[in-house]
Design a protein that fits this description.
Oligomer: single chain
Order of helices and strands: HHEEEHEHHEHEHEHEH
Helix content: 25-40%
Radius of gyration: 18 Å
Number of strands: 8
Low-confidence stretches: 1-18, 27-39
Mean pLDDT: 90
Length: 322
Amino acid sequence: MKKIFAAVTALVMLLALCGCAEKSGPSDSAASGDSPEEAAVMRMSPEDLLKFAEENLEEFAPSAASEKYLDREYGEIVHGTYKSKTLGRERNYNIMLPPGYDENEKYPVLYALHGYWGDEYSLLDQGDGSIKCLELLGNLMSEGKAVPMIIVFPDIFCHATKEDCDGMNDENNKAYDNFINELVNDLMPYIEENYPVLTGRENTAVTGFSMGGRESLYIGCTYPDKFGYIGAVCPAPGLTTDCVKEEDMVFDDDNKPYILMISAGTNDTVVYNNPEIYHNVFTQNGVDHVWHTVTGGEHWGMTIRPHLYNFLQFCFKEPAGN
């Protein structure tokens, strides 16, 4: 497994100088907008979900949320590969299938993106054993706080010739930014063809950590017609300087996010206050969103876990009594 990101702060701020990859339009086989199957799926409205989130947001994840209990199911993690037309080679991913997974049922899908120097294992126990994503989802489902969903963990370093990130620089920043093209044109169509997932923005979410958080915001702002739930935890700098202009970080009424959530640790000595910069931009633009700070949270699991604990509950929320 690749080395997990552990860079000094000064190097991290090089991200602010990066240029984002030019996005390409989705291919004919790419994930498209709504399909007839979503008509029967009811989701809480953005207004109601924002109110629910504000009333139920927890700063920290309870310790019990990441415990494993003998009388509960916790799903399964499967590793696989898909053919990337964007890069012309096979690419890796992990997929978390929910407890009680049934190939004859269809599930909403969340794409979870790792940070710099990470890979498809970085948000799982092999990368950071403190996050406990499998236990979080299983426990939340058992308690009726999260709907059954599929979670995809891709490798988001998307360089034309290099398999692995070899340094923090503009070239590699652009490789991470290029993932937006591979996601829409290659990975999403593959997942939709090979797993029983619901399509449409009301059934599709994205979140990410650090560089993955920057990418999830980039993806969400660029394709709000495909991603209805957008999250970011400790998002890295650079988004507003080159990827998306501040004035373009808005959503029209037809593509308003069901939820937009940014989490930050107050003791993050890697990206410092950069998440708050994004929070302020959305606030100035009049974009409803959840701003979540974790007291004492650093740049790793202590902040990632509370983000996921909350975000998993908000994703694909159904109206009361549905």
